[in-house]
Amino acid sequence: MKKIFLTFTLTLLTVTFSFSQAHIGVMGGYDTAESESQIGAGLNYMLFPKVSIGGMIMISNIEKKGKEMFMLNGKYHFGRLSLVAGIMNMEMHSMGMGMNMEKETKPYFGVEYKPFKNKKLKVYYTHSDMMKSIGIMMPVFNLGKKMHMNH
Q1: How is the chain classified by DSSP, letter by letter?
Q2: Burial bucket for residue 6 (CB in 10 Å: 0-12, 13-18, 19+)
Q3: What does the pLDDT average to over 64-91?
Q4: Are residues 45 and 21 in contact, defined by beta-carbon separation less than 8 angstroms?
Q5: pTM for the complete prediction?
Q6: Averaged over 9-30, what is the pLDDT?
């Protein structure tokens, strides 16, 4: 039984790490629901050739310290198109008479599209109850055995 478990574990680790790659990226967009621009950074890790998980932070309304969004997601890649689903935690700061801060966590989904085959630039759309944003993202730094994203 120990030999079977050890073989299974080693096989799983080999398959997982043979496709493993992480990349750090930056993004800029526009929240159409709130009419605010956004900037952000993210980290994605490819588990398998078509599946990746990641997290990102997006900030909007920087001058007034408005909203900060932390997102965790999973992506499934169909060539140039990727479907995204995850959860979003948003903090809103209110600068009224008192310093108020609200936190909400909601699910979201999105789509990413790579318009140019040989470029790493992607266009994204994210939809949730808290925001509807469109923008562009680009990987800045790649880590892992494969030094390029195929998606």
Answers
A1: -HHHHHHHHHHHHHHHHHS-EEEEEEEEEEETTTTEEEEEEEEEEEEETTEEEEEEEEEE-TTTT-EEEEEEEEEEEETTEEEEEEEEEEEEEEESSSEEEEEEEEEEEEEEE--STTS--EEEEEE-SS-EEEEEEEEEEEEESS-S---
A2: exposed
A3: 86
A4: yes
A5: 0.71
A6: 70
pLDDT of residue 85: 94
Q: How far apart are CA 58 and CA 132, in angstroms?
A: 13
Instruction: Give the count of alpha carbons within 13 A of 8, CB side only.
Output: 5
Choose among 90, 91, 25: nearest CA to 52: 25
Burial of 125: CB neighbours in 10 Å, binned 0-12, 13-18, 19+: middle
